[in-house]
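Researcher: I'd like a candidate sequence for this fold, 73 residues long. If you have to choose between options at a position, lean toward the conservative one.
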């Protein structure tokens, strides 16, 4: 898998860990396991959970978030 997607999966993992239980319950466990198994464990994202959010994550992360929202939330 491409390095940029492995880093995006790590960013998604960090974001999901800040999500509510209600939101997480809507996402299939198999999808969460896929993220965990394919993320770059050495990537240490510096995500800003404020108005600078979009600039603090990879473009691939934003695309994956859009897909997660569309398909599960």
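Model: Candidate sequence:
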């Amino acid at each position: 898998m491409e390095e940029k997607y492995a880093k995006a999966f790590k960013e998604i993992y960090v974001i999901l860990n800040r999500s509510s239980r209600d939101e997480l319950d809507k996402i299939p466990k198999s999808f969460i396991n896929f993220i965990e198994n394919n993320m770059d464990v050495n990537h240490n994202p510096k995500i800003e959970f404020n108005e600078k959010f979009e600039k603090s994550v990879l473009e691939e992360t934003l695309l994956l978030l859009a897909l997660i929202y569309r398909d599960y939330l």
